Amino acid sequence: MSEETSTAERRQPVRAAVAKAAQLARDAEHHARERQHSKGKGTARERLDLLFDTGTFQETGRFSGGDINGGVAGSAVITGFGSVYGGTVGVYAQDFSVRGGTLGRAEGEKICHLMDMAMELKVPVVALIDSGGARIQEGVVALSEYGRIFRKTCEASGLVPQISLILGPCAGGAVYCPALTDFIIMTRENSNMFVTGPDVVKAASGEIISMEDLGGGLVHSTTSGVAHYLGEDEADAIDYARTVLAYLPSSCDGRQKSFAYSRTRGDKEIAARLGAIVPDNDRQPYDMIDVVRCITDYGEFVQVQELYATSAVVGFACIEGRPVGIVANQPNVLAGILDVNSSEKIARFVRLCDAFGLPVITLVDTPGYKPGADQEHAGIIRRGAKVLYAYANAQVPLITVIIRKAFGGAYIAMGSKAIGGDVNLAWPTSQIAVLGAQGAVNIIHRKDLQKARERSQDVEELRSRLIEDYETTTVNANLSLETGQIDAMIDPEQTREVIARSLTLLSGKRRERHMRKYHGNQPL
Fold first, then answer.
1. pLDDT value at position 18?
2. Is 173 annotated in the active site?
3. Is 410 a known active-site residue?
4. Looking at domain 35-247, does it have CATH number 3.90.226.10?
5. Where are the domains of the chain?
6. pLDDT tier at 70, thresholds 50, 70, 90
7. Is residue 74 flagged as an active site residue?
8. Residue 409 known to be catalytic
C-alpha cells in the first residue's frame, strides 16, 4: 500500500465525522426554523443574517460545550464577529430552539470569552436575547455565569457600545444583562422583560396580569422607560441597531464617523423655514422635531426613547457629515417642562454621548422643572440633579441654542455656560430669567397688586403693565448677552450654519481621564 493511499484512508473517518456534524447542524437549523417560525420569530442565524453585512459573520466557539439535545454540536448561544456598515461588531445570539436558549456554564463561558475579545479589539457588542433564563439543571453554576456576564458588561460599559435586542423572553435575573447595556431594543410582539413573571405576581399579590401588560415591548417603551426603541418586528428592531451603530464609534477611543455631505440650493430655503416654526405667542406649542429637521443633514434624526418622557427629545443626527447627539425640550408636550422622567432621559443620553465622544447640541425651550407634590415625592430634586451632573462632567463639545424660553434651574441644567457649555447662542426673541414674567410679577409686585385690589382698581390692567415692563427689562436675552452668559444672538435661519462653524471650532477639544479620584458619586 502506497503512502498516499494510507493517508487517504486515515482521513476518511475525519471526513465522515465532519460530514456528520455538518448534517446534524443542518437538521438542527431546519427544526429550529420550524419551531421559531410557528411563533412568528426568526432563528438565531436568521437574525445574524439581518444584523451583519452579507457574508461577513465569522462564528467563534461553535463546537464548545459538547453535544446538546442528543447530538446537536455546540450550545444554546451563538457567538462571533461580523461587519455592520464595514465596522467590526461582536455578537452573542441566544438560540431558543436549543434548550429554550437557557444559560449554563458552556454558554456563559462563550459569552464572557466573546466580550473579552470585543474589549481587547475595542469593538461594539450586540446581544440577541431569546432565552428561558438560567438552566435549572445546572443550579447555582448557571447563576454564577450570569454574575460573570454582569461583571463583564460593567467592565465594557463606556469602553465599547453595547446594544441588547430583546427578541423573546427575558426574565428573572437575566434582565440585568440588557439593563446594564447602552441600548435596549424590543419588539411589539414576542418581546418580554420582567424580574418576576405573571404567575409569581399572582401568587405574591393576587394580581392577575398578562406577560404583555407586565413586561411587553410597549410597556417598557412608554411607561417604564426600560426600552430605547420599539420595533414593529424583528427586522425593524435589528435595522435600528444597525442605524445606531452607524453613528457611534467602535469604542471610547475609536475614530469618530464622518459622512459625505454636499450643500444644496434647498439648504437656504430650509434654514429660512426655521423662523416660521416657532410662534410669536410664547404660550403656543410647536413641534421641536420640525426645528431639529431644519438643522440636520437631509432632515434626518434618529430618536432614542421616542415614546417615553416625551416632553424631552433626544437622538442622533449629522451636521455637515459629523455625527452629533441632539437634546431638546418638546413644547408640544407639557410645554417642554423637565420632570423626573425627562430629566433621566436627558442625563443618560448626554452621558452616552460623552462616553463615546459625540458632541451634544442642546435646543432649549422650557419653562422649568415641573412643580407639584407628585414630582417632589417622586424625587425631582435627586433625579433632576442627574441632568446637572451629566452636563457638568461632559468633556465633549457642548453647543446650546435657546430657542424661546429658558427659566430657572432648567436654564442652568440645559447646557448653560455656567454648567460647562462651550458655545451658547440665543434667538432674538428668546426669554431667559429666574421666572417667567407672570410668575415673577405675582411675587415681586404682590403688595402692589393687593393694594390695587383694595382700592377697586383694575388689577389685571396693572398686572399686564407690570408683566410687559418685566419682559422688556429682565426676561429678554440681552441681559444674558451683556453678562457673557450668551456668546451671540443669532437669527433663526443662521442656526445650522453657526452650529456647523462651532463644531469646526471645537473639533480640537480634548477629553481627559481624571486621575485625582476614583469616580464621582452621581445622584442615583
1. 59
2. yes
3. yes
4. yes
5. 35-247, 266-430+477-508, 436-474
6. very low
7. no
8. yes
